Amino acid sequence: xxxxxxxxxxxxxxxxxxxxxxxxxxxxxxxxxxxxxxxxxxxxxxxxxxxxxxxxxxxxxxxxxxxxxxxxxxxxxxxxxxxxxxxxxxxxxxxxxxxxxxxxxxxxxxxxxxxxxxxxxxxxxxxxxxxxxxxxxxxxxxxxxxxxxxxxxxxxxxxxxxxxxxxxxxxxxxxxxxxxxxxxxxxxxxxxxxxxxxxxxxxxxxxxxxxxxxxxxxxxxxxxxxxxxxxxxxxxxxxxxxxxxxxxxxxxxxxxxxxxxxxxxxxxxxxxxxxxxxxxxxxxxxxxxxxxxxxxxxxxxxxxxxxxxxxxxxxxxxxxxxxxxxxxxxxxxxxxxxxxxxxxxx
Length: 346
Hints:
By secondary structure, the chain is α/β, with parallel strands linked by helices.
């Protein structure tokens, strides 16, 4: 594994107190020859504190720059310290370090400028949602037509770059859609972009499976609603389940949306487990809708509190934000079918 001696693992981290220790300790334990740097992107949780207490190599940004700026800072760190390669390795535990040696060997042996860890080459594990796959296939087709290169997973964040690409990235790095945009820029500059097969870790696989199941049940529910015209009786599939677990799983699906607006989801849950008897899929959909609306109408750099508490043998769930709120004259109508407080939205 001597190739890894020339690689710096750049770990962007924004509010990753739940994951950063596991990610770094795994690298230290399994790949002691690897150098790494945690780039703390102005986290508001205990990410900085955890890194300092454990003595991790830390690049502590004074303000939040977003993923693009955070990764660019890591590229500068790697470039000016003379590393031959740098790889983005997310601080949320998504990426698998077992692929790093293959990526480094591809950079060196195949003289590649950038190597992408693709989830779709061997088609193992979860293959993303149908809509997302369509977008990826369109990009794959366009990259083949325009640049003569087939890229199967342009949205992958696990990418290793040589010094040539590092130099390009530290001068200019796209902010809006960094992964596919950087691929296009490199291909346009005749850089050699290659892919190797990687697999998504279980944590994100479970999040995506949960979200897929939710959308499937939502579609079935809408079809039933249409069939009965909204006047038929709703059949509830009541079961015993842990509502705290459902809230945690639902909150995890909003990581991307919260990261973009720098919103912190604060979970204040009663006990480690809190079992209720209800229709799990419908409760999950209500929590999802409330959280989704809270994020949409909350200001940047704010927080949303999701709380459970028990009173008189009943479990209450609340989603609280500091957004614009609902007009008083609309509150009594929020349960009406297809009611919109903003009529301009059609």
